Amino acid sequence: MKVHDIASLLFAGLAIWVIGTIYYGLRGPAVLETTSLRYWANFILSPVLSAVICIAILRLLGLPSSAWASATLLLALPGMFGEAVLLSNFSTFMPRLQIASAGRYGAFLFAAYALVLSIAEVVTLRAVR
User: Transmembrane region positions (predicted)?
Assistant: First the structure.
């Protein structure tokens, strides 16, 4: 992977995190503090959408499948660090959400990161065989 690719992945990861944080900051109550059906539908859709976006970025950059695991980690790291800060100061950064929603928000994040990183790992493992 070239230095340009690394920088692009880190920047894209930061941009995705900022956009997602703003979205959940504004729309969080409608997603996290709602009916069970609506919450679980969003819980399933959010990680899938995250995976689609990440795969599109990897393909747009033309990265080989053998590099997807490390590339996806570079995409995820800015958000993971950002979320650690956000979740530890949840009421400051997400004032529209009840503090009790932090767990639901965290669950969304873990599901999204787990799905994206798992897909990338499987693709990489198949590519290096």
Answer: 6-26, 38-61, 67-87, 107-128
**How far apart, in whole angstroms, are the C-alpha atoms of residue 102 and residue 99?**
6
What is the number of structural domains in the chain? 1
What is d(CA 38, CA 8) in angstroms, rounded to the nearest whole number?
Answer: 34
Task: Give the range of the structural domain holding residue 25, as residue numbers without chain letter.
Answer: 3-127
Cα–Cα distance for residue pair 34/40, rounded to 1 Å: 10
Residue 56 amino acid letter: A
- Could you tell me how many residues make up the chain? 129
| Full-model pTM | 0.89
Percent of the chain at pLDDT > 70 equals 100
Q: Give CA–CA dist 49/32, Å, rounded.
A: 17
Please say whether the beta carbons of 75 and 8 come within 8 A. no
Using a CB cutoff of 8 Å and minimum separation of 24, what contacts does 94-99 make?
A: 94/24, 94/25, 94/28, 96/25, 96/26, 96/28, 96/29, 97/24, 97/25, 97/28, 97/29, 97/32, 97/33, 98/33
